Amino acid sequence: MVFTFFSPPPPPPGLRGSLERLQLGYVDIVFASRSDPNSPMEEIVRAMTYVINQGLALYWGTSRWSAMEIMEAYSMARQFNLIPPVCEQAEPHLFQREKVEMQLPELYHKIGVGSVTWSPLAYSLITSKYDGRVPDACRATIKGYQWLKDKMQSEDGKKQQARITDLLPIAHQLGCTVGQLAIAWCLRSEGVSSVLLGVSSAEQLMEHLGALQVLSQLTPQIVMEIDALLGNKSHSKK
């Protein structure tokens, strides 16, 4: 069970109220989302340590924090004998790669912080069903998602859709959908502990879980082919 709230952290009674509504005694992990520069890091780390010591969560992590902020939290925990974060919740997908590929691996090797990733299909943009158009029954047509429709119809969106079409032969070769290929591609990344899926039906969930069968087929050669088609592989600035 995952529970996310926004920084600065609410007082423990607020978390307890959420647990009561969820009918849970505790959650496995609680995330501090979007680090607030106006909140001293020591306060955030102490609040999270208190939450864990009270038995309201087993671990705490960060969401959309920079590598520098995560390292600061870890250093603060070491300095004051507090509990450090164990993972970062990031948004990597085929068209957004740099943070997970260039920044988080260094933290993974130095302090053991892994990543729990979300939106592996980029809000359902990474799918062959759109084919350059916006179907009536898709998320982009829902009220409040005009930004997604605009993104799909933008020049960048059209270019991304073209690259997704280019990936179809690889997906067919592996006997999977483009969505399954994209999820497996996220899972292959070093330091990725898990990939959060967003589905609207049991059938869609089972389809996405099929990515586990694809993961073992992602050989270095296949990954190189995907990188060549995407043309956006992250490179060190050193």
Automatic annotation (TrEMBL):
The keyword Ion transport applies. GO terms for cellular component: cytoplasm; voltage-gated potassium channel complex. GO terms for biological process: regulation of potassium ion transmembrane transport. Its main location: cytoplasm. Residues 17-229 form the NADP-dependent oxidoreductase domain. It comes from the Eukaryota. GO terms for molecular function: oxidoreductase activity; potassium channel regulator activity; transmembrane transporter binding; voltage-gated potassium channel activity. Keywords: Cytoplasm, Ion transport, NADP, Oxidoreductase, Potassium, Potassium transport, Transport. It is found in: Cytoplasm. Belongs to the shaker potassium channel beta subunit family. This is Potassium voltage-gated channel, shaker-related subfamily, beta member 3.
